[in-house]
UniProtKB/TrEMBL annotation:
One of its GO terms (molecular function) is peptide transmembrane transporter activity. GO terms for cellular component: ATP-binding cassette (ABC) transporter complex; outer membrane-bounded periplasmic space. GO terms for biological process: peptide transport. Pfam families: SBP_bac_5. Belongs to the bacterial solute-binding protein 5 family. Residues 172-593 form the Solute-binding protein family domain. It is found in: Cell envelope. The keyword Metal-binding does not apply. It comes from Thiocapsa rosea. This is ABC-type transport system substrate-binding protein. The chain crosses the membrane at residues 693-716. It comes from the Bacteria. The keyword Cell cycle does not apply. Keywords: Membrane, Signal, Transmembrane, Transmembrane helix, Transport.
């Protein structure tokens, strides 16, 4: 019996080996990282590189976190998905609020009232009735209407390790009070909201309210919530269950943009009470981990060391897909779903991918629906055509992959310290020197070499997509470019050399002293890749005979030099918080100077006419008058040249053919609801692109048979002869 049992075991081993080798005949790709049941599901698959630190909308201020938060929370306003320049439209609000103006005595003022006469601006926000929160234990109630989980004790928490361990959930209607409660949280010192300081400058009563809460910092979390519920901010008023009013100091038209940020999303007091209870934070059950919103999605799984899943909110009201777009949108097919209720997908699965190569390979295999393009993969995906435009490689086109590009609302510029006696100041000599350098430093070449062509040479401080930006010939910087044919062409080095001579530096030498002109460049050098970039910058100045001294340091020391104004030339960047020209032009506003005022004007540029126009422009509504003021400000800045305008970075993204309604929008973060996929096409192409490579397994199988079978045969013969 023993020999027969052993033979059966060996037989089963060989049978199992054969089964493994024959498994390649199955339908699903062997390397599919997802469960077989998900093959044709209505899901979007993506990735993330860093775990989100905050999922509390009052604390989060990161694009990586907004990728999740903006799908869950709904502030009153949002950005139109397709229209450019970027435009605010209602989200939970009934309309974009128009401010009403009042003088210091509370008397109403006309819309065209002088800015100095406006004491406050009132924004009345009316929200849509019938909006409901996602299912959540914080809203669960018993038959008597009492909340089930607002008085938890240690016994209640036995066996509870995550939010899903609470058996009951509930919901309720969104009210104006929820938005007011969130504004109170922005002021609460224990929340540590990054915009608390900004709001103190603008919302009436915000600063006083924040100071009144200081004594509650050390109190019990439940008492803090009770304190917020029982107190009021002077400048934030509940009008009725679906309306509230925010009073802003003076006139601040840009306040409406803040109403499109998650900071101003609603927060139900029930959620705060629920999460404030003892024993939950120790289990990682807290608002920073489990958001509570009214948006189209809710966080179904939060495992930031593996994956995060956004699931469709069953209580979502169904927002219609936009029916209006740009002139080319109808032909592109992006408006096919116009009027249909969103969202179109059931889930979005985000897998943790810390390394770019595995992320890229999974995209090529079809396991991620879209992807950015790392520098390592750029040549594999994109090539530059004869016109200088990026196009997909043949390999990408064969797979039906599409490339989307958009100019980001940001600027990377080379700044001059205007306090420096050589390169700065408002003398004609220094101005001509800066203009000569502006011609010589070829940012088109920089974009081509160091950003894989992902950039647009800037003509001024305002990037495309922002009101005030001028297209075409009307928008070029005439001191650096000339319009030839249908494009801007950088002026010749001969013109730059003439400017150098006019400035008193013929051939790069000071005419008065005969010494070579030497300029210091402040750099942040972190690795070997920086050496090539810094060498390139040095060569640009050398075209004019200028000796550029690179002074590399770490980031902290670099910031110190900028704060103290001890540098001469540096590279800096700015990304817009909101799409208004004020958000870029303030970088050149004199009272924002870095050295004197600790502001964001790192060049310490000051021009009286520019500052006067800025003070007027910032309070204007978009229109011809504002455009004229902006045009003049940009002209002044081009004449003075405190910056080499640098470039506006471009975002590149790739999308598989089964992904629909992918349109670049650099201001909107809540774009998941617009996405639609064809799961059947995705599964078929995944199967075609990932055929199993079986020959190594067959080779191993044959090797095993050649080695193992004779040994098994000998053992069997020996055991059989022994038995006989």
């Amino acid at each position: 019996m023993r020999s027969i049992e052993r033979f059966d075991i060996r037989g089963r081993f060989l049978f199992g080996l054969a089964a493994v080798l024959l498994a390649g005949c199955g339908e699903a790709p062997w390397n599919d990282p997802y469960p077989a049941g998900e093959a044709t599901s209505n899901r979007v698959y993506s990735s993330f590189a860093e775990r989100p630190k905050h999922l509390d909308p009052a604390r989060s201020y990161s694009a990586d976190e907004y990728a999740f938060l903006a799908q869950i929370y709904e502030p009153p306003l949002q950005y139109h998905f397709l229209l450019r320049p970027y435009r605010l439209v209602p989200l939970t609000a009934l309309e974009v609020p128009e401010p009403a103006y009042f003088d210091i005595d509370g008397n109403p003022l006309p819309q065209d009232a002088p800015v100095e006469s406006i004491h406050r601006s009132d924004y009345l926000i009316r929200i849509q009735p019938g909006i409901r929160y996602q299912p959540h234990p914080a809203f669960a109630s018993d038959d008597a209407g009492h909340y089930r989980y607002h008085t938890l004790n240690a016994r209640d928490l036995r066996g509870v390790n995550q939010l899903g361990d609470f058996e009951q959930t509930g919901t309720r209607e969104l009210t104006a009070e929820d938005y007011i409660h969130q504004i109170k949280r922005l002021a609460a010192p224990w929340v540590h909201s990054p915009i608390a300081g900004v709001m103190q400058k603008h919302i009436l009563g915000f600063e006083d309210y924040a100071e009144s809460l200081v004594g509650s910092v050390e109190t019990d979390p439940l008492q803090r919530v009770a304190r917020l519920k029982a107190s009021e901010i002077a400048g934030v008023e509940r009008v009725d269950p679906y309306s509230y009013r925010i009073s802003v100091k003076g006139k601040y038209p840009q306040f409406a943009y803040w109403l499109a940020m998650p900071f101003f999303a609603p927060m139900p007091w029930e959620a705060e009470v629920f999460y404030a209870q003892p024993g939950l934070r120790e289990r990682n059950i807290m608002l920073d981990w489990y958001p509570v919103g009214t948006g189209p999605f809710m966080l179904g799984e939060n495992n930031p060391n593996l994956r995060m899943v956004l699931a469709r909110n069953p209580n979502f009201r169904g927002e219609p897909y936009p029916s209006e777009g740009m002139p080319d949108d109808a032909a592109s097919g992006i408006l096919v779903d116009a009027g249909r209720p969103m969202p179109f997908i059931e889930e979005a699965v985000y897998s943790l991918e810390k390394e770019s190569i595995p992320r890229w390979n999974k995209f090529l295999q079809g396991f991620y629906d879209s992807s950015g393009i790392s520098s390592d993969a750029f040549d594999q995906a994109v090539q530059i055509d004869t016109g200088g435009e990026p196009v997909l490689t043949d390999a990408m086109r064969e797979r039906g992959i599409t490339l989307l590009t958009s100019v980001e609302p940001s600027v990377m510029y080379m700044g001059f310290n205007m306090l420096d006696p050589v390169i700065g100041g408002d003398s004609e000599r220094a101005r001509l020197l800066r203009r000569a350098i502006a011609i010589a430093v070829d940012f088109e070449e920089f974009i081509s070499i160091f950003t894989n062509g992902r950039g647009l040479a800037a003509q001024g401080p305002i990037p495309p997509g922002i009101f005030g930006y001028r297209e075409g010939e009307a928008g070029i910087n005439p001191f650096v470019y000339e319009w030839i044919g249908d494009r801007a062409v950088r002026r010749s080095l001969d013109e730059a050399r003439v400017l150098m001579e006019q400035a008193g530096y013929p051939g790069g030498r000071d005419r008065e002293t005969g010494r070579a002109l030497t300029i210091n460049y402040e750099a942040i050098a972190t690795g070997p890749d920086d050496r090539a970039r810094l060498n390139w910058i040095r060569k640009q100045f050398a075209k004019l005979g200028i000796e550029l001294v690179i002074r590399s340091t770490d980031y902290n020391r670099f910031q110190e030099k900028i704060r103290n104004g001890t540098g001469q030339v540096f590279m800096w960047g700015w990304n817009a918080d909101y799409p208004d020209p004020e958000n870029f032009l303030f970088l050149l506003y004199g009272p924002n100077g870095k050295v004197e005022h600790q502001g964001e004007n790192a060049s310490n540029y000051a021009n009286p006419e520019f500052d006067r126009l800025f003070n007027a422009m910032r309070f204007m509504d978009d229109g011809p008058e504002r455009q004229a003021a902006i045009d003049r400000m940009v002209e002044i800045a081009r004449i003075d040249a405190p910056w080499l305008w640098g470039f506006n970075p471009k975002a590149f993204s790739l999308h598989h053919q089964w992904m629909y309604n992918a349109s670049p929008n650099q201001m909107a973060n809540n774009t998941l609801k617009y996405r639609r996929v064809d799961p059947e096409l995705r599964e078929r192409l995944r199967h075609d692109w990932n055929p199993p490579i079986l020959w190594p397994l067959w080779a191993i199988g044959v090797l095993v048979l050649v080695i193992v079978l004779p040994a098994l045969w000998l053992v069997w013969r020996r055991e059989r002869s022994t038995a006989l």
